[in-house]
Design a protein that fits this description.
Blueprint lengths: L3 H14 L2 H34 L13 H12 L2 H9 L4 H5 L3 H4 L6 H34 L5 H28 L3 H18 L10 H13 L6 H25 L3
């Protein structure tokens, strides 16, 4: 794995220079801080809009939001991040291949395995940091606005959400390796996201997909039964590893 650490430093600098790190951090902060605030404000906003639309009639919100509603809003907002993760990482290798930068980065003794691993490790670490940042903001605001949050359950939910995002990082890198350019790589990543979302709606099969894992986290937050959660997490983890292994095999055989 020669050259791994220098390639990681190069990739981190690239994330900073292209503002991908800034975009990712802002998105995670908004999800973490904004979700409990939105849950708190939603009943008042609904009442105000309903009063305007119904000609003076007042819509009464019977149930006030609580911790569960705040965490469910956090989950709904977090569920939009996979697309952002794909778009931020789908050009990581494809752009360097099309600009002929990859051959220069892969001069001896740097290996292609180290090159791919660095491309995966840095976004994975940044995604982990973003998830911790988002979870901390959500925990802080939810506790302040609604009351105490179960720390163990919240930690499990965020670990599973992180696993979903890591799968989509791997999917983006897979598309970046197999596609000849950034546009086609984006097509692979977004197309894969759409197919997985559709598969998640198939009874029986959907429970064992990354989309099913995302739905399972919602059930966990809402206190519903989650019989397939562990299996979905296992399948998602194995699929993540498989995407990276296949991408590595393809990259090894490509002419750059």
């Amino acid at each position: 794995m020669t050259g791994f650490l220098p390639l990681c430093r190069k990739e981190l600098l690239e994330q900073l220079r292209t503002h991908r790190l800034l975009v990712l951090a802002v998105a995670f902060v908004l999800v973490g801080l904004g979700s409990p605030l939105l849950a708190k404000a939603t009943p008042d906003l609904v009442s105000r809009f309903a009063e305007d639309d119904l000609g003076g009639m007042e819509l009464v919100i019977v149930k006030e939001p609580g911790v569960r509603e705040a965490l469910f809003q956090y989950h709904k907002n977090f569920a939009m991040l996979p697309l952002l993760v794909i778009l931020l990482n789908v050009g990581a290798i494809a752009s360097e291949k099309s600009r002929r930068i990859a051959p220069m980065a892969l001069v001896k003794p740097v290996s292609r395995d180290a090159y791919l691993l660095a491309k995966a490790a840095v976004p994975a670490l940044l995604t982990l940091g973003g998830t911790l940042l988002s979870a901390s903001g959500c925990l802080l605001y939810t506790t302040a606005l609604f009351g105490e949050v179960d720390p163990a359950g919240f930690a499990v939910a965020n670990a599973l959400l992180l696993l979903v995002l890591l799968f989509y990082v791997a999917l983006a890198l897979f598309g970046s390796v197999v596609a000849p350019g950034v546009a086609s790589a984006a097509g692979v990543g977004i197309g894969g996201f759409a197919l997985i979302s559709l598969a998640g709606a198939i009874p029986g099969l959907g429970d064992y997909t990354p989309a099913g894992l995302l739905s399972g986290v919602a059930d966990l937050i809402l206190g519903r039964a989650t019989p397939h959660l562990a299996a979905a997490a296992l399948v998602t983890g194995l699929a993540t590893a498989a995407l990276l292994v296949v991408a590595g095999r393809v990259l090894t055989r490509q002419e750059l």
